[in-house]
Structures are given as C-alpha cells and as structure tokens.
Design goal:
Blueprint: H1 12-37, H2 40-46, H3 51-79, H4 81-100, H5 105-133, H6 139-167, H7 172-175, H8 178-191, H9 205-228, H10 232-255, H11 263-268, H12 270-286, H13 289-300, H14 305-333, H15 336-353, H16 362-389, H17 396-425, H18 428-436, H19 443-474
C-alpha cells in the first residue's frame, strides 16, 4: 500500500511533535557540517593535526552520510522508521560529545565519522516520517518547514562557529549542538509512532556492502595518495575502490526490484540522469570552498574566525534568498535555462576568485561568495524540481534518495579532489605548515605557493562546473 493512499486522522499535537523532532534533525545535520569549516584553523592548530587529519574532519562526516544514505533508506522501509530515527539521534549525540572531547586528530576524525553515521540514520528517514504523518494537503507546509530548517542550519553554522571560537574553546562547537540533539531524541523516542507501512521485500545487503566499501576505499585512496604519495597502499585503495564501484553498478542493474539504486532510471530517463549528474558536478566543483577559503582568510590574510564567517554566510544566505525565487520561476519557464544559468554564475564566481591575492579585503571575497551562492540558489530548486518531476509517483522515494546521494557524494568528492589538486602544486611541508599553523619558516613564500595552488584549484573546478552547465543545457525541455 502506497503512503499516498493512507487515510489520516489528524492529531495536531502529534503533527507539531513530528515537525519539531524532524526540524531539529534538519537543522543539526547541516549545522554540524558548516559549523566546523570556520573553526578548523583553530582545531588543527590546537590538536597539531596533519593535513590529512584536518581534511578528514569534514570529509569523514560527509563520507559516512554518503555511503549510508541509500542503504538506510531501504532498511527503514523494512525494519521501521522510528527505530532508525531514534537510533540515529543516539549515535549523533555520542559522536558529537566525543568529538568535543577528542585529544588528537585521529580521534576527532573517528568521532566525526560516528557523527556522520548518526546523521545518515536521521536524514534517511526524516522526510519519510513527515510523508507518513501528514495528510497530503498539508505535506507541502511540513516540507517547507523541513527545507527552511536545513537552510537555517547551513546558514548559521559558520556564524555560530565564528562566535564560539572567538570567545571560548573550539570544543564548544560540538557541545552546543548536543542539547538540541538530546531533546530531539527524547521527543522522538516518546512520541513518534512506528510506521505500519512496510515494504514486503528483502534488503539489498550485497549492493549496500559494495557501495560502502567502494566509496570508502576510493576516497581514502584519493586523500592518502594526494599527500603521502602514490605508493602501493594508495594505488591499491583507489583501484579496488573503482573495481568495487563498477561491480556495484553491474549488480544493481541485475537485481532491479530490491536495488538501493535504480540504474534503469539513470539509463532510460534523460532528465533524471542529466539532473543528477549536473548536481554531482555542481557540488564537486564548489563545496570545498568553505574549507579552503577559511584557511586562506585566517592563515594568509589574518582575519578572525568571526570575520571569516561573514564571507561564508554570504554564500549560503544568497542561496537561501534566491532558491525559492528560482523555484517559482521554474514553474513558469521550466528548469533548463535556470539550471544552466545558475551553474554559469557559479563558474564566473569561481573564476573571479583567481585574481585574489595577499591583500584581498573582506568585501572582495564576500562579493564572489554572493555570486556563487546566487548561482547555487538559481540552480538547485529548478534542478531538484526537474529531477523529481521526471519520475512517476511510486518512484519519488528512489528519486529523492538518488539526488541526495549525488549531493553528498559530490561534497565528499569535492574535498577529496581539491586535496589532490592542491597537493600537486603545493609541497607537503608548506601544506602542513599552513593547515597546522605551526613551523611556517617563511610566511611570504609559503603564502605565495599556497595561493598558486588555490588558483589552479579554482580554475580546474570551474571546468567541472562548466561541464555541469552543459549537461543542464542538454536536458529535455519540460
């Protein structure tokens, strides 16, 4: 039985609790991703972290989300959504508190992965809980609150992080989110009802295992090889990861009905395929910015975390403002032009970052972040609408899960590929000194070399975004 056909006896108090607990989840998961970006220069120096340890603070969180989102979405249909939702909150709370108590880089990386696992549990079922709880004529409002909460968490993260590290220890960037997660856990444990809707099929354990192993090995190989060098371990990890991913695609195309990734949608639906791959290239091309811009502004330009957060907020805030506008326009004129134009704007913003040097002002960086955020806002809503509108009602869950995976996979690849690119142009000794803030023997030379690497990074990733713009343009007209 499809959830669209379920009749509802509306309990307003229960719906309020559903909105509250899912909104907490929607705020927390992006907040814990963005709050770290502005704080990383402080964290890496405090814990004397290496370059790889530093980049795995955001990367470990994202990889856990990426590899578990699809398997857990399927698993929740079989075992129950409340169980996964409350378990996710509990895992997230443990990971959050222990991240704040970490005493070295490896320990922090490990607990950030635990955090990401909890976030994957929560995000994989949050939307489904809303869908099953609300009657069809009120779901739009409920998802509007959910979307606003995601944007709120994304937007306030850098600012909250900037304030915290400016007035107290960086450890409180983790402790500050724990109480909200605890409230969410208690409310969901006591009040959220277990779904009676079940999918009468088995779990795709083989496909899930292949996906998890392939992405973990591939991304680990990229980051390990980029800094340590392409020795046997790095090449082995990268190669096995690629082989397992190809095996995953082949396996999923055979089992079809119980697959966690619907390959036929990607091969037979042009709008679905171009929209998803455009999103993948978009996030791969731009997401690393908050990580590297934070170090550029604080280590090279000498800005405080709070001032740095202004530039980072301008990116997400402009995205928040223009996303609903572009969504409205896409209903009128279609997604093709808007999605293409949005990615072109992102590319222009990336190219405008290249001339920035050792004396860039806050306004210079903020202007470019606004252009990129504007492009993101114009691209995202029409692209999402086109992807979701290209499938039948019974495939909406699959479409949403696939698009979410592309988003988080793009974010993970963005950090991995960016680390690989800069390692080609920046010697490991200089990278380590910039990221740890320690042992910088010649700050002028180190800064110039770091800038050279960043400029190459901006140029190469703008090409990825240009390819995504071409994909958006080549999609079918609605």
């Amino acid at each position: 039985m499809l959830v669209f056909n379920v009749k509802y006896n509306v309990d307003r108090r229960y719906l309020l609790i559903v909105s509250l607990t899912t909104s907490f989840a929607a705020i927390l998961t992006p907040l814990d991703s963005t709050i770290v970006s502005v704080s990383l220069p402080f964290i890496s120096k405090s814990l004397r972290m290496s370059y790889i340890e530093t980049i795995w603070v955001p990367l470990g969180y994202l990889i856990a989300l990426t590899v578990l989102l699809l398997p857990l979405g399927r698993f929740s249909d079989i075992k129950g959504k409340k169980k996964l939702f409350t378990t996710g909150y509990l895992i997230f709370i443990i990971g959050t508190i222990m991240s704040g108590l970490s005493v070295n880089g490896l320990e922090l990386d490990a607990w950030r992965i635990v955090q990401g696992i909890g976030a994957a549990f929560i995000l994989s079922v949050g939307g489904a809980i809303i869908t099953e709880s609300y009657p069809s004529n009120e779901r739009g409002k409920a998802f509007g609150i959910w979307s606003f909460s995601v944007y709120l968490g994304t937007t306030i993260g850098p600012f909250v992080g900037g304030i915290i590290v400016s007035i107290t220890t960086w450890r409180f960037i983790f402790f500050v989110t724990a109480p909200l997660a605890i409230i969410g856990y208690i409310l969901s444990q006591i009040y959220i009802k277990e779904s009676k809707v079940r999918v009468n099929s088995s779990m795709d354990y083989i496909g899930s295992g292949l996906l998890i192993a392939s992405l973990l090995l591939f991304i680990y190989g990229l980051t390990y090889g980029s800094f340590v060098g392409w020795n046997l371990l790095g090449m082995f990890s990268l190669t096995i990861g690629l082989i397992l991913f190809v095996s995953f695609i082949l396996y999923e195309s055979k089992i079809k009905d119980r697959a966690i990734l619907n390959i036929s949608l990607l091969t037979n639906n042009i709008m679905f395929a171009t929209g998803n791959f455009a999103a993948l290239l978009n996030y791969t091309g731009y997401f690393y910015l908050s990580f590297f811009i934070s170090f550029y502004m604080q280590r090279i330009l000498g800005f405080s975390p709070l001032i740095t957060s202004i530039a980072l907020i301008s990116l997400s805030l402009s995205m928040v403002v223009f996303s609903p506008i572009s969504g409205y326009l896409s209903d009128k004129i279609g997604s093709r032009f808007l999605a293409t134009f949005g990615m072109i704007l992102i590319m222009i913003g990336m190219l405008l970052l290249i001339p920035l040097g050792l004396h860039a002002k806050l306004i210079d960086i903020t202007e470019r972040m606004i252009i990129i955020g504007l492009g993101m806002g114009i691209f995202s809503s029409p692209n999402t609408s086109a992807v979701m509108g290209s499938v039948t009602k019974d495939k909406l869950g699959v479409a949403s899960g696939t698009l979410n995976m592309m988003r988080f996979l793009g974010q993970s690849l963005s950090l991995s590929i960016a680390s690989l690119i800069v390692s080609v142009y920046i010697p490991s000794k200089i990278l380590s000194s910039i990221f740890t803030g320690l042992n910088i023997s010649n700050i002028s030379v180190s800064s110039q070399v770091f800038l050279f690497g960043l400029r190459r990074l901006y140029l190469i990733t703008s090409i990825l975004i240009a390819i995504g713009a071409a994909l958006s343009f080549l999609r079918n007209k609605e």
